[in-house]
Structure formats: structure tokens, C-alpha cells
Amino acid sequence: MAFDEMYAADGSVRPPYAGVAQWLAGVNPEQLERRRLEAELFYRRGGITFAVYGDNQGEERIIPFDIIPRILSSAEWARLSKGLEQRVRALNMYLADIYGKQRAVKAGIVPEDLVWRNPAYRPEMAGVEVPHGVYVHIAGIDIVRIDADDFYVLEDNARTPSGVSYMLGGREICFRLMADLYGAHKVAPVDNYPDELVTMLRSVAPRSADNPTIALLTPGQFNSAYYEHSFLADKMGVELVEGRDLFVKDACVYKRTTEGPRKVDVLYRRVDDDFIDPLAFRPDSMLGVPGLFGAYTAGNVTLANAVGTGAADDKAIYTYMPEIVKFFLSEEPILKNVPTWRCRDPKELSYVLDHLPELVVKEVHGSGGYGMLVGPQSTKAEIEDFRARLKANPETYIAQPTLALSTCPSFVASGIAPRHVDLRPFVLTGANGMKIVPGGLTRVAMREGSLVVNSSQGGGTKDTWVVDL
Amino acid sequence: MRIRIQHRTVTIFEEPVGALIQVLRRTPRNYDGQHVRHWRIDLDQDVQMIPAEDAFGNAVHNLSYTRPLDDLGMTIQGEVETREFHGVVRGGHERFPVGLYLRETPLTQTDSTIRKFAEGLGGKDTLETLHKLMAALHDAMEVEPKAVNLPAPTILAAARGASSDVAHVFIAVARGLGIPARFIAGYALLGPEQQSWRLTTRCWAEAFVESIGWIGFDPVEGISPSEAHIRVSMALDHLGAAPLRTTAHGTVEERLDVTVLADHADHAGFRQQQQ
């Protein structure tokens, strides 16, 4: 039985949801349906769509938005945000270490081959001094609950995590369409996120830049998160640029403008490592800026996130995060890890192969809910197919128990019903410390019983309210 | 040996190039086997060369041309003293733990053909296996002047490629066997024939043998690099060690000249280096 965030086991309403319960008692399904349609219209008008990879290339969809907010008490949030800060601090220290002194490997905290042979490790970054020592400027940490007490990290996202535009869009919808409910709560604001983001980006500019110019580097309109890129650039008041808008001269980065070249000091880049500079990484990349990496290592431009952060966030390193937290911070991890079997270990692999129907198996380097097996919801044929894949390349998989993710009341075709959720808060790290806007993106599996919340797999989103009780 | 080289390249572009960015790895560093007495790169164009050092310890120059170019000339002149160590590479500054050199890269990927080739080598220990690998590639591969820069399995199947392509096969096979290996770009002296030497650009591989350390293998010649090799840059593969990465390609005219000033090393130079 999954943990229900609204109702306690005895059927009583948990305090954070008192207002929602009261409100739900006073609205009828027609009113809810009308608001749901309005919300959908809001997304359509705003062009808030995203492309789905896989079956129909380039198909654009609207992510379903569930109008019933997810509620966290400020006390719950305080605990969670402390855990998030600790986690991201450890991620940053780990990255500084694997590109620097290599203490963690030497101390045997993480196996050597998982570091040096990690596909996301960038040898080119070794010895590079990143501005202000920050690697993961923007982290998205996926959190799940299975009971009232603990928050578990499902996944760390330290590369170019997306979804924050849905957090902001969801809040705007709630503010407009759910004014009655919103007004009855003291909801902590999230709409300052773009300001916090731009403040953070300014703080990590090269020391030589007094009044830094910031730009957001997008792969372009064919990227699934292009809407978010243009939205954030607009909200931050910075320019949205593509690789072809920039050039490098004498190890500095410039933007072409009608008034001549303008130096760029900070790039919030949403282009993957592989593609940012054809002279340093993939030579066939058309999305990057030739010479950018040279400008970066010369200290003339800051890239956020740093290059090579993926070496900290794959699912194999994930399993070592509790040890990484203890090693670098000498603290007990506040956030728990979901118990995970490492299929690279023959003993653990044999357990996994024996229990496939009850486990979730994921690719170490996969994301977006692609290439995973949810044992209890798979056919025999799917399980056997995965068994073959596991045996062929065990080191590329991990397995986890099928977690009973917590549920929140959601408005679905049959009315109000519990649906499984997770949460992606966004953690900003700059030269002056860390900042997390209270809340994040709640993703909800809209299909009954489904545990896959990824938007690419039919998941929806909810607004997340951190409320003072 | 005391070697003086001159390496002149002129790149001619089919159409004038508006802006050009280049990254050079064309400056050798010292190690026990070589002492660089002097080295300079001259460009025909007036452009700033921004020096840097990459993560592998290679000397890098970043160049950016903003004025339109029809052609581009570059002259490298240098004088290097080399000593014979039969391929053993010591005294360089190692930036990475040996385990890093087991990484697979797109150009050095292994597949079933590579593995099968590796299994067929035999050898009673790592060193013998590596020598067998070098000999096998020396026999099997037809060496061409122009690099195709395709993944190792493709090169092995085609049985032809430039020295850089052959080095990728060597590296892929070695890594597939669990032997750390890496890519070297540099120069090799050919000859002497009638007392005269010829100079060529050359890529080879180095592999790590537990009891000895890093050892060079030049499958093109079928020997370990000798004092007639100048070691310029090192990385996981050709992309990382490339003497030149550029945003625009053209027809390259190349002229390499070499003078051997002394058959034996000037030991004073090495003593100076060791201080």
C-alpha cells in the first residue's frame, strides 16, 4: 500500500492537506473539468509543448497538468531542503575531486573503473580550475516518498536538468485558476526562480568581468526543451543564443550583434558536453562553438553547468552517493538512497535475474524513462527480453525494488483519485552559496497504478506548494 | 641523436575562409628519451597564438583568425636530442592514473572482430602479447598516407589506414585485453639512405606493462620507437592528441626537412634537463 500524502492510515486528513480536503469537498466535477480545460488552454496558448523521442519523431505534446496542487508543510520542506543542499554539496565536491586530487578513488570510496571509464567523465577537464570551484550550478534532484518520515533520492541530475519551466507555469496556472484555494494557503513563492538563477549565474562569472554578460545557449528549436530555453532566457532577461550566434577570438567568447561583437562571460548552456565545441569534443557537432572549450579552460568564460558533471550523476555512481556524502562532508546523509543492486557485481546480478518480475531495472546511462523495465507491469516476453540484455551487458544496468511511490489526490476521468508522484526540486549553487526555491516540479503518473512519472511516458505535472501550517 | 627539423605546411582553401579557429598540439615536451633544445612555430599570418596546456600535459596553442584567408602557411622549426630507450617512456609528467587509459573512445572501440583478433595473438605475458600485436598489425595493415579516422574495427576489417588509424587498432586491441594504451603523435626519421635521413609525421601507441611502465609500439615500422622518433603529443586517441584541429579544411602542401647533427646524444643537454 503506497503512502497517501493526503490521508493518513486511519482515514484522517494529514494536516498539510486540510485546506485541499475542505476545498475538494466544496467543488463538483464540472467545476474541476472546466478548470482543467482552462489549464490546458493556458498551455496551448503559451506554446508549452515538448517533443517526445521514440515512436513518432518530433511529435509535440502538451504535458497534462493536474490542477490539484501537491502540498508539503514548511517543516517537511525544511528537512528536505537541508538534505538537498547536503547532496548537491557532495556532488560538487566529488566532481572537484575526480577532476582534481582524486582522493575518493585513492581512498577506495568509488571503484576506479567507475570513475576513469565512466563515459560521462571528461579527461579534458582534469586539472581545469572551474570558476569559483562550482561544477553543478543547477541540479535537479529527483525525490520520492514512501512514508511520512523519509525522502529518498531516486536520481541526481547534474548535467542540464530540465522541467523548471513547468514548475513556474504550474504556479502561474494555480495563481490564476485556483485563486480560491491558493488564497486560503500561505504558499512559499517560486516565481523568483529566474531572478535567483540570473543572480547565481552572475556570481560565477570570471573574476575579470565586472558587469558580466550572460546568455543561454540552446541546441535550437528542435530540442525537446526548447520552449524552456526561450522561456527562461526571457524571464531572466538574457539572450537566447545558438552556437552560430557566438564565436571565439583569442580565447574569449563573443556574440555577434548589429553593433559589433559583444563579449559573453557566462553561458547557461543547455547543449550537452559532446556538442559544445567541435574542436574539443565531437568534431561533427554543428550545435556548439568552435574554440569554446579553449576559452573556458583559459578562464575567460563560465559554463553552467561545468563540463563533465555527468560523471557524478549516473545510476552507477548514484549507488555510492551515501559513501560520497560521508567521505567529503563527514556527515550522515539526510536523504536516503533507494536500495540498489549493481548488476556489474555477479552476485547482485544473479539476485536481479532471479527476481526480475518484482524489480525495476534501469540503464546506468539512461534517462527519461527510456530503456527501463518495470517488472510487475511487464509481460513475460518483455521480462525475457530484458533478461537477455542484462546478461549481455550487466555492467550497464542497476536494479531497484518497485517502490510504492507516494500518491496525491489527482483529477482524472473517474474523478478525484490517488496517483503516484515524485518531485524534482532545483538546487542552485553559485559563488555565494546555495539557493533552492521552495517546491519544485511534481511529476504524476496519470494512469492508475502506473509508477512511471516521466513526461515522455505519459506522466503529467502538478504545482507543488510549500505551506506554512 | 641530435635532430634538427623543419616542417612547413601550407593549407590552400578552395574558397576564402571568413573565420578560422585552430587548436595546435605541435610542441614536444621533454622526457628521458628526448630533450627539446628549441622549438618554434611561425605563422605566415599575423595572429595571436594563445598557449595552454591540456589535461594530458600537451602544449596547446589556440589560434583564431578573423580576417578572410585564401591560404595559411605555418613553419615549425626545432632541435631535439633523443636517446635510445627501446620504447620505454620515463621521466614525463603523468597526469592520470594508468586506469584512465582503459577508456573506450569512439575511435578505439572494441567489437567481436577486435576481440577475436586479440584472442588469436597469444603470448606468455603482457609484453610478449604486445609485441605480437605490433608484429601482427605490421604484417596485416597496408599503410597509407591519408588518415581515414574511422573506428578501429572498421580499420581492422579494411586492413588499411594511416599510422594514426593503425595506432587506433593497436590501442583498441590492447584495451580490449585489459592493457592500458594511449595514442602518440610525432615524427619519425626514415633512413639513413646514402647517409641522408628523411622526416615523416607518424603516430604510434604506448601500452602499459606492469613491471616496466609505458612502452611505445610503432606498428608501421614494427618496432618500438627509437631515438629516431620525436614524441609530440599524447591522449586517448587521435582526436585528443591531434596536431591540428580546425574549423576549415583545405588542400595541404607539406614539406619536411631534417638534419641529423649528431648520431649520439649530447649528454650535457640531458644532464641539464635532469637538474
Write out key terms for the chains shown:
heterodimer; A: 469 residues; alpha+beta; Rossmann fold; Dna Ligase, domain 1; five-stranded mixed β-sheet; 23 strands; 30% helix; globular; B: 275 residues; C8orf32 fold; five-stranded antiparallel β-sheet; four-stranded antiparallel β-sheet; 6 helices; 15 strands; 20% helix; 44% strand
CATH architecture group name of chain B:
Roll
Q: How many structurally independent domains of chain A?
A: 3
Strand order of the largest sheet of chain B: 7-12-11-10-13
Q: In DSSP terms, counting alpha (H) and pi (I) runs of 4 or more, how many helices of chain A?
A: 14
Query: Uncertain spans of chain A, ≥5 residues at pLDDT below 50?
Result: 53-57
SSE ordering of chain B: EEEEEEEHHEHEHEEEEHEEH
- Record field, number of beta strands of chain A: 23
Proportion of residues in extended strands of chain B? 35-45%
Largest sheet of chain B: 5 strands, antiparallel
Tell me the Rg of chain B in angstroms. Answer: 19 Å
Computed CA radius of gyration of chain A, to the nearest angstrom = 22 Å
Oligomer: heterodimer
Helix content of chain B: 10-25%
Average pLDDT confidence of chain A is 92
- Kindly report the spatial arrangement of strands forming the biggest sheet of chain A: 3-23-22-19-18
State the helical fraction of chain A. 25-40%
Distance between the termini of chain B: 20 Å
Number of extended strands of chain B: 15
Beta-sheet strand percentage of chain A?
15-25%
- CATH third-tier fold name of chain B: C8orf32 fold
Chain-averaged pLDDT of chain B? 93
